[in-house]
Amino acid sequence: MQVQKPGGTEIESRKDDPSQYEGMRYRLIDSTLEVVGHVGLEHLTIRKVSEHAGVSVGLVHHHFENKSNLVYKTFVYLIRRVREQLTAGRRGIVDPVERMKFTADMCFRDEVMSPGAANVWPHMWSSSAYDKDVQRLCTAFSRRLRSNFIWDLRKAGCDKMMATIYAMQAMALVHGLWIEHRVAATMSISEVLGVFHAVIDHATNRGWKASMLCHSGTNH
User: Fold this and answer.
1) Domain total in the chain
2) pTM of whole model > 0.90?
3) Which CATH number fits the domain that encloses residue 126?
4) Interacting residues of 112 by C-beta distance below 8 A, sequence separation 6+
């Protein structure tokens, strides 16, 4: 006699419908972010996620092997969401300076600064020091972001070397201003964006001037 595990029919039906299956995974990750926003990542448990989502603990374990796997998939979800929004938003902006400012703004949007997400990001970066999978995730995200900054700076007139230097400074600003605003609480979000935009204007103004001088010298 074959014994069916409790909830087996529900699980199998979800697997038969890919959209429903993925929808449940995203629902559980959203619940994870909500729980982390209230209790912090260190107090996150599978049971708390299941209770918030209104599903069984077994269903959460069906989608995520354990807490570590759930946290990692949450990292992936956050990065993918920010990356997709960056790609979609940048595509519609022609001016390179405005495109760079949009990229900077995205680093401080609600998707990154909400209580749950804001508690997860620092843990993700610290985990990359000993978790190779998380390190690869963080490295790929950083390289994409820096590449976007370099591309915009080059389009704004900076030469390759200066574009790379300014892009590295922009990356440092992302992390530094994030800590000042979210952790130290020494700056408002308007001050953060004001500083970032001013740095972008300063860098690209120099770029435009250098480009104009270069063309002027060529014409003479």
Assistant:
1) 1
2) no
3) 1.10.357.10
4) 78, 82, 106, 118, 121, 178
Q: What Rg do the C-alpha atoms of the chain give, in angstroms?
A: 22
Burial (CB < 10 A; 0-12, 13-18, 19+), residue 81, is middle
pLDDT digits (tens, 9 = 90+) for 6-53: 444 444 445 556 778 788 999 999 999 999 999 988 899 999 999 999
CA nearest to 35, candidates 57, 9, 53, 55: 53
Question: Is there a domain that residue 140 lies in?
Answer: yes
SS3 content of the chain, % helix, strand, coil (to 5): 80, 0, 20
Tokens standing for residue 210: 């250098």
Whose tokens are 């994409």? That residue is 144
pLDDT tens string 150-163: 999 999 999 999 99
- Best CA proximity match to 152, nearest among 112, 104, 106: 104
Residue 142 lies in a domain: yes
* Contact by Cβ (8 Å): 71, 77: no
Tell me whether residue 24 is in a domain. no
Residue 155 falls inside a structural domain: yes
3-state SS record for 24-62? HHHHHHHHHHHHHHHHCHHHCCHHHHHHHHCCCHHHHHH
Can you tell me the distance from the alpha carbon of 30 to that of 111, in angstroms, rounded to the nearest whole number?
11
